Amino acid sequence: MALHGADPASQADGMDSNRTRIAVIYATAQGSTRDIAEFIAADFAARGAEVELHDVAHAPALSRFDAVVLGSAVHNMDLLPAAVAYVRDHRAELTPARVWLFSVGLGPALRGPIGRRLGRTVPKKIAALRDSIAPVEYAAFAGHYERAGVSLKARTLFRLLGGTRYGDLRDWAAISAWSAGIARALSLPQPQATTVHP
After folding, report:
1. What are the tens digits of pLDDT across the range 25-66?
2. Which of 19, 38, 79, 118 is at a distance of 20 to 30 A from 124, taking alpha carbons?
3. pLDDT confidence of 120, banded at 50, 70, 90?
4. CA distance 10 to 114
5. Residues with Cβ < 8 Å from 158, sequence gap 6 or more?
6. Which has the closest alpha carbon to 111: 187, 64, 164, 165?
7. Nearest to 198 by CA among 31, 35, 48
8. Within 10 A of 192 (CB to CB), how many other CB atoms are there?
9. 3-state SS class at 67
């Protein structure tokens, strides 16, 4: 999906060479990561960037872009298999690119002394993948966690580790601040419209 900033003019490849070109690529399991990717892409478009939003299965060639934002849900302390495969298969393109990486899981939502410590720790598999492409920055965000369908054992562990509630745990202010930081790094102007989270 292409999102266009203020100037709709484009060249033959569909991208305006005068504007910053950003690919926002994501792997999602239940939609939380997609929502965050859509929010970030809309913020960049509101700042006049030429943005393409794709899931990893339909990601475009990266050579057309000035920057890449790559996000994935976290399951079992690792990025989704589709995101891991994408990084493995495109490492040669990702390594020299300006890449920002984010993950969406429960860690950032945990509270209490144990939960906060665990929430600040990047799981080993994610750290290894992150380090393999040396992104400009990595951020971990809380996602959406529903109680329905979760075993008693998993619910108990969630509570012991500092999980305080279920539902939408995303911190939209933190996501917005991270997106704004990327925009500053890319010298994008202030947004022409306010991007509202879902």
Report:
1. 999 998 999 999 999 999 999 999 999 999 999 999 999 999
2. 38
3. confident
4. 51
5. 106, 145, 150
6. 164
7. 35
8. 11
9. strand
Q: Three-state SS for 109?
A: helix
DSSP classification of residue 48: T
What's the alpha-carbon Rg for the chain, to the nearest Å? 17
Which tokens go with 31? 């939609």
Token pair recorded at residue 136: 């400009």
Cα-to-chain-centroid distance, residue 73 = 8
pTM score, whole prediction: 0.85
H-type helices in 32-151, by residue range? 32-46, 81-94, 112-120, 124-133
Listed in sequence order, the residues at least 6 apart from 164 whose beta carbon sits closer than 8 Å to its beta carbon are 109, 111
Please state, in angstroms and as integers, the Cα–Cα distance from residue 167 to each residue in 32, 34, 52, 136, 147, following that order.
Answer: 11, 16, 29, 31, 8
C-alpha distances out from residue 51 to 19, 73, 96, Å: 10, 21, 19
